[in-house]
Amino acid sequence: MIRLVVAVMVLCSATLAAAAETATPEGGQSLACEMTPVGMDQMDFQCPFVATGALQRLRFKADFLGSHDDTSGSLAAQLNGAPLVCAKGSATQLTGESGEVSLDCRLQAEEKAGAKLLLGVTLKWFHARYNDADFRSE
Predict the structure, then answer these.
(1) What are the tens digits of pLDDT across the range 7-41?
(2) Which domains does the chain carry?
(3) DSSP state letters, 34-99
(4) What is the pLDDT of residues 39-71, one digit of tens each?
(5) Closest by alpha carbon to 35, among 52, 57, 60?
(6) pTM, full prediction
């Protein structure tokens, strides 16, 4: 069982890395994140990106399967180590939702061109199955 969980986590990490710098149908660009499992129901993500010098609209989204009335989940974000309040329209908490559900954080960054930024995300969930995550420009 532990080998299966580790294999799934490695596969998820490889999927996120392979998605780096990939154009998407929505016109956004997928950006790479490094995923670190923390126990069975928590993952930490580190998503580096470079400022363009203009306003950047970004979104981190995590998808879960198999949720039902006793499912809960949360997303906490940091930008360069400081707590980040996700923008309006984000879904950083879920409780009692059934089926396929998502947590997401929308953010805006406007820094000097070339500045290196780091989005940190901690996902925690109960009674659901982590499926995938994506960090992209919008």
Answers:
(1) 334 334 444 443 334 333 345 889 999 999 999 99
(2) 2-137 (2.60.120)
(3) EEEE-SSSEEEEEEEEE--SS-EEEEEEEEEEEE-TT-EEEEEEEETTEEEPPPTT-B-EEES--E
(4) 999 999 999 999 999 999 999 999 999 998 999
(5) 60
(6) 0.80
